Amino acid sequence: MFTLYSRPNSGSAAAEALLAELGVDYRLIEILRQPDGAFPKEFYAINPRGEVPVLRLLDDSIMTESAAIMIYLADLYPAAGLAPALNSPQRPHYLRWMLYFASSVYMADLRLFYPERYSTDVTHSSAIKAKAIEHMDRDYALFASALGQGPFILGETFSAVDIYATMLVSWAPDLEELFARHPNIRSHYHAVAARPKIASVWLKNDMPL
Ligand SMILES: N[C@@H](CCC(=O)N[C@@H](CS)C(=O)NCC(=O)O)C(=O)O
After folding, report:
1. Cβ–Cβ under 8 Å, residues 85 and 33
2. Is 10 in the pocket of ligand 1 (CB under 6 A)?
3. How many CB atoms neighbour CB 187 within 10 A?
4. Ligand 1 centroid vs 34 CA: distance in angstroms?
């Protein structure tokens, strides 16, 4: 059975929702911060970067990197239809948006939420946050323009990348303002979050529906 190491309302929510959509049996282990802000020591033996999500695979090895986990799981269960096949014309777009969200939006979120980690000088934090918001605005505008009327990132076809994107959208510093600026991101968000299996993971993770 897969084991997902998670933390509520963190980057593990997308993998959790994907496992639920796929109907795969898995065990969830919550890694909660200790009072000093660090994760328990034993977790660093599992992921020396101290980050979730971590997926323990069926051969007991460890996989990190949320986008890679999404791609791997969706490919492993092709009957669920949550990833376009390797030779599908949709495959490049699917991979593009998965990596786009992982490398642009997710990283900007980390700069926004943990600015002190991005400079040796704490007085830089507000400038780091301001730039992260600027990058997010640019990256959401590009996403909105590619999404068009959707309803999903691949048009009519719902896929794992919609789950990933929606998790990241839920962390927007001002979700209502983002939705007002890009109504199609709002429609996309609700189309994904309303799916019953996703909605129950979102609720459990305290993410907006
Ligand atoms: N590139 C990693 C980033 C994972 C990451 O930064 N996870 C955050 C939660 S959203 C985390 O666990 N950070 C550890 C910490 O804040 O100490 C991925 O995509 O999985």
Report:
1. no
2. yes
3. 15
4. 16
pLDDT at 37: 87
DSSP one-letter code for 156: T
Angle at 39 between CA 193 and CA 13, to 5 degrees: 10
* Predicted pLDDT of residue 179: 98
State which ligand 1 atom lies nearest to the alpha carbon of 64.
20
Grouped pLDDT means (10 residues each) for the chain, 209 residues: 97 98 97 92 96 98 98 98 98 98 98 98 98 98 98 98 98 98 98 98 97
Confirm if 61 and 54 have CB atoms less than 8 A apart. Answer: no
Pocket test for ligand 1, best of 29, 32, 52 (most atoms within 8 A of CB): 52
Q: Is 33 left (phi over 0), alpha (psi -120 to 50) or beta?
A: beta
Mutate to test the pocket of ligand 1, among 5, 6, 7, 10 (most ligand atoms within 8 A of CB): 10
Domains of the chain: 2-80 (3.40.30.10), 91-195 (1.20.1050.10)
Atom of ligand 1 nearest to the CA of 33: 17
Residues 149, 152, 156: CA angle, nearest 5 degrees = 85
The label of the residue with tokens 């429609």 reads 187
The structure's pTM equals 0.98
